[in-house]
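Usage

Read records sequentially. Each one opens with the input sequence:
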Amino acid sequence: PSKEKQDKPVKIDKWDTGALKNALDDGAKKVLVEINGYKESHKLMDGRLLICTIAVGFALFALLWDYLYPFPLSRNVLLTCAISYFILMGILTLYLTYVEKGVFLVALEQDRAMMEPDNEWRLSSSLRKYDDTYHLTVQFFDGKTNEKRSLTVSRRIDNYFDENGIFCFDLFKPVIDKLKQDLSNEKKKE
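and closes with the structure output:
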């Protein structure tokens, strides 16, 4: 049953840019993780979860404190927790903007002999509302030399979806493979 679900074509509303972007992102993720066998790393997303968990912890503590010591007594604790929560939301915004930068996949290419550090592949994308051009950036971090290389491809979304809104994975996969190959060839030239 799970095999049938994977082979079922993805159909989306052609006018929903969020759904279009998510389908393309999932396709790129499928190429690296499922087909090439890279290991997905969640460290980047874990940072976001840590910040959110701390913020929710402040909110829960304030709720509990206010329950145990009704308002006039809990004023300072509520004020401290509320300010801390909003500061953490500001930190989260900065983290998403400057650290995550729209990255939807961090994949680790492990050395077969397990002698070298893992190579890291980061994929980020953008598709603006009412725009028909999908921008995909693939960044490669060489585990051995710590060099960073990246390539970006910008293509119209109608290259990957038919007129009924069905995602044509067989047209999208070669684009990802070419980006990966170009970055890998660049590595071998040096």
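Summary fields computed downstream for this record:
- The chain has two domains: 17-38+110-187, 45-99.
- The longest strand covers residues 133-141.
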